[in-house]
Amino acid sequence: MFSSTPSGGADPYVPGHGDLAFGVDSYDLTLDYTPAGNRLDATAVLACRIVDDVPEASLDDGGVRRIELDLHHRLKVAKLTVSGAKMARFGQERSRLFIRFAQPLAPGARFTVTVAYKGSPGPMRGLDGDAGWEELENGVIVASQPHGSPTWFPCNDRAADKAVYRFAVTTDAEYHVVANGTLLRRRHTGRRATWTYECTAPMSPYLATLQIGPYQTRQIQAKPTDVRLVFPPRLREPVREAFSEQLHMIDFFSSRFGAYPFASYTAVITDDPLEIPLESQTLSTFGSNFANRGWDAQRLIAHELAHQWFGNAVTAASWEDIWLHEGFACYSEWLWSEEIHLGSADQRAREAWLRLSRLPQDLRLHDPGPKDMFDDRVYKRGALTLHALRLTMGDAAFFTLLQRWVSENTGKTVTTQQFVRLADEVAAAAGVEPVGALIAEWLETLPLPQLPGPGSTRV
């Protein structure tokens, strides 16, 4: 019913990215960035391993003789070394960095790759558009989803390859640097400053980010989760008002999905307006146009926070399953609306169903294709799938399903098949008929299914 193995490389939605023959356990990135001229001088240390289930096409004399990293062609390698294995040679071909070993490496072999590189980073093109490093009027924003990570560091750019990260970023002292995870220290040296962050929770490369700007920070909670707002000084009051419900949101989603999955959460608000907010692990990035109390801003603040559970802690192994991210985050908007009495999830769902019913019925929710992966119909139909499931299973079983989905898969990558199996298991335990066919109708058919009749949608 649902395919689970990407074809045409690591993932056909991001062709030319990722290598299935190896994985990366950790990235240690040392970045020196000069805003004037947009110059990056960096070193990346990758702790790697040959995977146990090497694809047949990658085998050479029983092992792996060549691997490929992703690195945008605007960044040039100055030096590359390998420890733990003997390298024959390396080279750059467009936005791929290949390493050829003197002897084939057996499955399970571990080695470390150190890459010194430099250049003027910028976004790179993909089937869905541009992504990656982008200069703002005064600073930098990195939007890596789904293929932009190679614009600023060499990586095995596939969602299923999670690793831990350390970032040490040096730039002009007047700038504030934000990266994933916890800030370990900030050290000033003359007119420069080095910010060191550590992300110890496994993270897919596309969720790694870097935000640089003339910001200030407000910590709104220290424990159990370090929660911060980072913003331009001129937006201090609008940001305070716009994010006044941030702690309430975290507590509410924790009650529905399980405990917040990371040690910290940061919302970065740029001085520039942005078309859409940006998802990344342990932080979200919003344009100045979202610093308000209107519903369109508040629903997206809730949406990006929900991605910490659905997309970041629990990550789809391939992009054909993007509904597992966006459908869940969109449904979280409706749950938040219900929580603050701006309309029940059922009302929001039926309004969304009516709007979708008037649009072309030519999108398949599971495996929508790279050009439609961020189509609003994926978001709304994914959310409607969950609402149909909730109406069918009942609130107790439905939220048990969401909590188990998170608790059993945090730090891992998942597939639609796994979700269907768990949904049927939870339904059976609750005395409900199997729901796999219901989910398949919403995900696999083109015509929009009918929602079940309204029922109790309050916890």
UniProtKB/TrEMBL annotation:
- State the superkingdom: Bacteria
What top-tier enzyme class does this entry carry? hydrolase
Cofactor(s) listed = Zn(2+)
SUPFAM superfamilies, per database record: Leukotriene A4 hydrolase N-terminal domain, Metalloproteases ('zincins'), catalytic domain
Q: Which residues form the Aminopeptidase N-like N-terminal domain?
A: 26-207
The family database entries (Pfam families) matched by this protein are listed as: Peptidase_M1 (PF01433), Peptidase_M1_N (PF17900)
Q: Which Gene3D superfamilies match?
A: Neutral Protease Domain 2, tricorn interacting facor f3 domain
Tell me its EC number(s), please.
3.4.11.2
* Domain Peptidase M1 membrane alanine aminopeptidase span(s) in chain numbering: 248-442
Sorted alphabetically, the keyword list is: Hydrolase, Metal-binding, Metalloprotease, Protease, Zinc
Q: Which reaction does it catalyse?
A: Release of an N-terminal amino acid, Xaa-|-Yaa- from a peptide, amide or arylamide. Xaa is preferably Ala, but may be most amino acids including Pro (slow action). When a terminal hydrophobic residue is followed by a prolyl residue, the two may be released as an intact Xaa-Pro dipeptide
Q: Name one GO molecular function term.
A: alanyl aminopeptidase activity
Biological processes, Gene Ontology terms: proteolysis
Q: Where are the transmembrane segments?
A: none
Q: Which family does it belong to?
A: Belongs to the peptidase M1 family.
What name does this protein carry? Aminopeptidase N
Which species is the source of this protein? Dermacoccus nishinomiyaensis
Q: What is the lineage of its organism?
A: Bacteria, Bacillati, Actinomycetota, Actinomycetes, Micrococcales
